[in-house]
Amino acid sequence: MSEDSALTLLLASPRGFCAGVDRAIQIVEQALERYGSPVYVRHEIVHNKHVVNRLKAMGAVFVKELDECPDDRPVVFSAHGVPKHVPAEAARRDMLYVDATCPLVSKVHVEAERHHRNGKEILLIGHAGHPEVIGTMGQLPEGAIHLIETVEDAAAFTPDDPENIAFVTQTTLSVDDTEEIVAALQARFPAMAAPHKEDICYATTNRQQAVKAIGESADLVLVVGAPNSSNSVRLVEVAKRAGAKDAHLVQKAQDVDWAWFDGAVRVGISAGASAPEELVEDLIAAIAGRYTVRIEEVSVAKEDVVFKLPREVA
To answer: Which of 89, 132, 149, 179 is catalytic?
Structure first.
């Protein structure tokens, strides 16, 4: 490949780790340092195998439920948040637990509780089965929150009192899809209370904006992230919607099908909020091993958000 026909790599910025993910990983690392191993972690701390395997090697033990943890070892709750009964059970067993829930997810929990106290019927826009949705719905009694996944759900929902409803959202949704659902609900229920500030987190929004910026002119967009990572899967959808001819989610460089590159001149690269930068670097190195590359950084925002660690590990 001649220099004239060099592959242009469009690097989306921001990409990769957000402040909530960074904090959650640090919590596990600090817990291991302070309390020694093993430290138990309920569910994947963040949705990334690479991160989970590195923490396992340091002495973290990942479990599905609290009943798999002994009483005398620390347990960390994942960044996605947990239903209320989980910390209540840990306290009942007198366990040392550290809550690594992202502060922006906790904000949604507080909002939902406030609406419930005020007697409102609550709608949660999100994806069924996602740990964050399970955690948010688990803040309130059964039936207090209704899940809305699509515009069709918004059209079909019948409230007890249309004048007395409120909505919150999962923090990692597609900004555009969520706007459509909210618009459909607001058209039906003009009195519906909205969040004071956008529930979709700054990092999700910024990463989607950056992918839009690279997707417009890209032949191919590769997003580094896990298939169970909501924000990563959304980035692939956003790239296609923005105009990318093709887009794929890859967990690591070895997942690339080089046939995707046939005829590609401009290739966009991004990473979900739980994907470490070293995986992006590996991907770039793999591409550079096969093609002459020219790298162009496409930046839409600067991020300087940092969340404090909980006192148990600070």
So the answer is: 132
